[in-house]
Design brief:
Largest sheet: 2 strands, antiparallel
Helix content: 40-55%
Shape: globular
Organism: Triticum turgidum subsp. durum
Pfam families: PK_Tyr_Ser-Thr
Protein name: Protein kinase domain-containing protein
Order of helices and strands: HHHHHEEH
Low-confidence stretches: 102-125
Keywords: ATP-binding, Nucleotide-binding
GO molecular function, one term: ATP binding
Strand order of the largest sheet: 1-2
Radius of gyration: 17 Å
CATH architecture of the largest domain: Orthogonal Bundle
Number of domains: 2
Structural class: mainly alpha
C-alpha cells in the first residue's frame, strides 16, 4: 500500500469518527458485522448518528455535529479521488466553528487566524500564538 495525501485524509476522517464516538476502530464491531467507520457512515446516511455518538459530544457539539460528521464521512470514502483535500477539510472545519470558541475574557481574539471574519485564508501562525490558543482549553 502506498501512502498518499488521500490516505492521510482517510486517516483524519477515522480520527474524527473516533473523537465523535469515543470508540476505537480496531475493537468496534456493530451487530451487522460492520466496523466503526462503515457503521458511522451508514448511521449518518440514515440520520441516526445519535445511536453511535458519545453523549458528551452530542450535548456539547450542538448544531455543528452534523457538519463535522459530514466532513468525517467525506474523508473516509472508499475511493481516494472522492475524498476532499486536507485544505478543503480545513476550510469546512473552520466554517463549522462557532465564534464563542475564540473568546478570551469575553473578547474575540481579533488577531487570531482562527477568529471568524479575520479575513485570513491560512492558519500559519507562530508557536507563541499556538501556545496561547491551546492554553485556553483544558487538558
Amino acid at each position: 500500500m502506498r501512502l498518499t495525501e488521500k490516505s492521510d485524509v482517510y486517516s483524519f476522517g477515522v480520527m474524527l469518527i473516533e473523537l465523535m464516538t469515543r470508540k476505537k476502530p480496531f475493537t468496534y464491531m456493530a451487530s451487522e458485522g460492520n466496523g466503526l467507520v462503515a457503521h458511522f457512515a451508514t448511521l449518518f446516511a440514515e440520520g441516526n448518528l445519535s445511536e453511535i455518538l458519545d453523549p458528551q459530544v452530542m450535548s456539547e457539539g450542538g448544531n455543528r455535529i452534523d457538519e463535522i460528521a459530514a466532513i468525517a464521512v467525506a474523508c473516509v470514502k472508499l475511493r481516494g479521488e472522492e475524498r476532499p483535500t486536507m485544505r478543503q477539510v480545513e476550510l469546512r472545519l473552520e466554517a463549522a466553528q462557532s465564534p464563542e470558541e475564540f473568546e478570551a475574557n469575553g473578547d474575540i481574539v481579533a488577531n487570531s487566524p482562527l477568529a471568524c471574519g479575520a479575513g485570513l485564508t491560512s492558519r500559519q501562525y507562530s508557536m507563541e500564538e499556538e501556545y496561547a490558543l491551546s492554553a485556553r482549553y483544558p487538558r
